[in-house]
Design a protein that fits this description.
globular; Rossmann fold; 245 residues; 37% helix
């Protein structure tokens, strides 16, 4: 990962105005792949916890390597920042800011990106990605807007009881393609809502999703609830959704 070619990246900072968020705007960072050309169109990965995905996940460096060395089709990455103090209220489906965040994402963020960047506008070329509550909010966004989002990357998703109830209430999820990983050392992780067994949460969510006919890729691996684990998994997760040329 020390090859200098991987570090020559284009990352653009943006600000999206919002009617649905109390602070009325949200910061983004947008990774443009090597050789980005506005005449072409690209798949796009939308990341919750955008700052963490770029800084701790090193997703721009990993994406550049996958494109240059592994022949993956070039793709755009949009990292959506979050105020950590408001994160649970936005990402948890029973959070006080969740409904506004979902509307911001679908009605303001998506059009903003699609007007400014040459990204594809069909659901099979959009991926929602997130870790922990970012993984669960990505799934909730897809369930709320299946006409927009059908592909979800969940890294140790925080699928608490309220999320499992929402999955159970779905009639049919055969349109959904979700990639799930969880670390085997996440069986007693302390969150702001208490101590949870993330392995059990993910096993339960997987079973519920499969019951509703979702396409589920699922793995349990040695790992803790931290970026040291998730960063190592990003190349496989991205390769699952982005095809080789």
């Amino acid at each position: 990962m020390t090859d200098e070619r991987y570090l020559k990246r284009t990352i653009v900072k943006e600000t999206v105005e919002s009617r649905y968020l109390p602070e009325q705007s949200r910061s983004l960072r947008v990774f443009l792949p090597p050789g980005y050309n506005e005449v072409l169109s690209y798949p796009v990965v939308y990341c919750q916890d955008g700052e963490d995905f770029f800084n701790f996940g090193r997703i721009a460096t990993i994406a550049t390597r996958l494109i240059l060395d592994d022949g993956l089709e070039p793709f755009v990455i949009v990292g959506v920042d979050v105020d950590k103090k408001q994160r649970t209220e936005e990402y948890a489906p029973d959070g006080s800011r969740h409904a506004g965040y979902a509307r911001f994402f679908a009605e303001e963020l998506l059009p903003f990106v699609e007007e400014r960047y040459s990204v594809r506008r069909d659901p099979q070329h959009r991926v929602l990605a997130g870790d922990s509550l970012g993984g669960s909010v990505s799934l909730h966004l897809a369930m709320a807007y299946p006409e927009l989002f059908t592909r979800v990357m969940s890294l140790s998703g925080a699928f608490y009881g309220v999320s499992q109830n929402i999955i159970s209430a779905q009639e049919d999820l055969s349109w959904l393609d979700i990639y799930m990983i969880v670390g085997l050392q996440e069986d007693a992780y302390e969150t702001d809502r208490g101590v949870y067994d993330f392995v059990a949460l993910n096993r339960n969510a997987k079973a519920l999703l499969e019951l509703k006919n979702a396409k589920v890729y699922y793995e349990e691996k040695d790992g803790k609830h931290q970026w040291g684990f998730w960063q190592k998994e990003l190349d496989r997760a991205l390769s699952y959704f982005i095809e080789a040329e």
